[in-house]
Amino acid sequence: MIHKLLSSRLFFLVFIFLSSASIASDFPKNFFINYQAFQLEQDGGFINLNYTQKNNVFSIIAKTEFKGILKIFGDREFISEGIIDIKQFKPYNFEHKNKLNENKNIHVKFHHDKKKLSVSYKKSTKDYDLGEDYQDLLSFLLQFNFEEKKDNYKFNVVEGRRLNTYIYKKLKTLPIHYKGFQLSADLFEGNIEGRKNSTHYIWLANSKYRLPIKIKVKTKVGLPVEIKMIDTNLEM
Questions:
Q1: How many whole angstroms separate alpha carbon 69 and alpha carbon 66?
Q2: pLDDT bucket at 17, cuts 50 / 70 / 90
């Protein structure tokens, strides 16, 4: 009886492991996503993201090329590096480079074994307690690919100098235009826990890859910005 129980439990654990591992192995090893930003329907420039992965070690690099009024914020480069395990991205390095003012560059180190986070900014470094399942600003946008489809999500996100909890609630499913055809997407309303005026919206593709097709946010000074995916080499 005990032997049968152990065998059943072992079979169940192996099944779960293989199912989860297949998600990680199915995730593409190299791809790009190009976005265009709009401010009140005016061209605001581009955000280009490149993803590479080798032996479960990933690198995500996103660069901005802003135009018009968004140019006042300066171009940025974001770098996320880490490991993909069977259920999530696990970043260990995150960089936010401010091309307009290098003194505002931010470098974050994740020490998962010690459950600590080191944030370097303006020649000083501060340590913070690191909870479970923390993502950085880039990796969390792709983390939806490792989550089951549901109506509510909650992510712990390291933005740079801040650690925040992002909460998403599904509003509806609707068609969205992409490169001359219609895609099905789930529209989510997002808020940052404890922060006023943090409401934003994200459209997630209902396709092979759960990618943000469109994002609506507001800048720190309240300017509305719309970000649309305009190209990718991934199957949509």
A1: 8
A2: very low
